[in-house]
Amino acid sequence: MPHPLPALIVVDVQRAFDEWEAAGKRRNNPDAVARIADLLRAFRTHSAPIFHIRHEGTKPNSSFLPSRSGYAVKDEAREQPGETVIIKRVNSAFIGTDLEQRLRAGSIGTLVICGATTNHCVETTTRMAGNLGFDACLVRDATWTFDRIGPDGDERSAEEIHAMTLSNLDGEFARIVTTAGVVASFAAK
């Protein structure tokens, strides 16, 4: 029998992103971490499953090396006792981890995905979730990204990148939802 509640997948809400921002990288969705905290509160209140995904860097200069300050989880998204923490070393939370097996063992079919960054680990995890047959819901106001320079030197704002990622995923890989909508869905159960 399928699990009656969705699972929350919190991707890479780590201090490295604060360090990037402090170093001058510009991001969108300044309230994303507050929305992630709202989601965590709602899932905890309803005893719904939560999976914290943490990125562990493998390159010598990675901000996400366990020995560096950026590896630590932001306080607002810190796991509580009994909540699952899964360490990944690539963009997708499904590659090289037991996330899929844990979800299948729990008969979990719906995933609510949030975290950082929209166009990297969140997008890759969301695409794979959809391809693996999960009902993936990407929370648009609980994820963020940074400005980037494209291969031809073209500048793309974090807002443009975020919007394009949502457009690419919508309908084929995931449903695009809001924090308020997810929280309201618990009240309807």
Characterize the structure shown:
It comes from Bradyrhizobium symbiodeficiens. This is Cysteine hydrolase family protein. With 189 residues, the chain is an alpha/beta fold. It has one domain (7-187): Isochorismatase-like (Rossmann fold, 3-Layer(aba) Sandwich). The protein is 33% helix and 21% strand. The chain contains six helices and eight strands. The protein has helices spanning 16-22, 32-45, 99-105, 118-131, 158-169, 179-187, and strands at 7-11, 50-55, 84-88, 110-116, 135-144, 148-149, 155-156, 175-177. The strands form two sheets. It has a six-stranded parallel β-sheet with strand order 3-2-1-4-5-8, with helices on both faces. A two-stranded antiparallel ribbon has the order 6-7. A hairpin with a 5-residue loop joins β6 (148-149) and β7. α2 packs parallel to α6 and α4 (118-131) packs parallel to α5. It is globular, with a radius of gyration of 16 Å. The chain starts with 6 loop residues before the first strand and ends with a helix. The relative contact order is 0.20.
